[in-house]
Amino acid sequence: METLQNVLTRRSAPRLTDPVPPDGELLSLVEAAMTAPDHGRLQPWRLITLRGDERVALGRRMAACAGDDPTVRERAAAKPLRAPLLIAIVFTPVEHAKIPRWEQLAATVAAVHTVQLLLHDRGYSSIWRSGKVTEQDEVRALHGLEDTEQLLGWLYTGTAAGPVPPRPRLDPKPRLRSLSHACPLSA
Ligand SMILES: Cc1cc2nc3c(=O)[nH]c(=O)nc-3n(C[C@H](O)[C@H](O)[C@H](O)COP(=O)(O)O)c2cc1C
Asked: Would residue 176 count as lying in a domain?
């Protein structure tokens, strides 16, 4: 797919089903996404796939954090089942004299979005989902997170279960200004 067309047509798909990318294909997409801008080439992230019963286990942990109402717990348990493949996004920042944490987070987001664009290019779809649940000890423990690591959510991944309408294009002009327009220079 042509790059501009890929970017313009990517949409997050709320309902996902099979097929999912096979392991080898997914690895090659991740390898390609590692070319995303990354100051110092720190690659301060890692991804964890959850399929089948692994998603059920995540749902149990989500339910355990959802309070006492059985209906709410049931809904929480079903959340990871909305896609056949979840890709947990783990931010793994390091202390660095020249590269602050925010730059490492920016590099991580650049890589994750590149994965989303590459999935779309291959005919798959995804949606990045997060929430307070990413901070819960039970959920963090399931993913084996170190204290220094942060769970940024999951890329729910698969094939769109139905058509996802295109998003109306927004006016780009307020997002791009010349310096003299944005901040008139005093003589
Ligand atoms: C860091 C991050 C976290 C997100 N978390 C959620 C979420 O928990 N639930 C949700 O419905 N959308 C979430 N979104 C938004 C969707 O992933 C998606 O980008 C949004 O619905 C816009 O749709 P589009 O990608 O088709 O433009 C999140 C996006 C980002 C970047």
From this structure: yes
Question: Is residue 187, in this structure, part of any structural domain at all?
Answer: no
pLDDT digits 0-9 by tens, 9-25: 999 999 999 999 999 99
User: What percentage of the chain reaches a pLDDT higher than 90?
Assistant: 93
pLDDT in tens, 41-57: 999 999 999 999 999 99
Q: Residue 143 is which amino acid?
A: H
CATH number of the domain residue 156 falls in = 3.40.109.10
Domain that holds residue 50: 3-182
Return the ∠ at Cα 159 (arms to 154 and 165), rounded to 5°: 95
CA distance 86 to 66: 20
Q: Determine whether the shortest distance from the Cβ of 153 to ligand 1 is under 6 A.
A: yes
Structurally, the chain folds into a number of domains equal to 1
Task: Report how far ligand 1's centroid is from the alpha carbon of 129 (Å).
Answer: 6
Question: CA–CA separation, 100 vs 95, rounded Å?
Answer: 8
- Nearest residue CA, atom 6 of ligand 1? 129
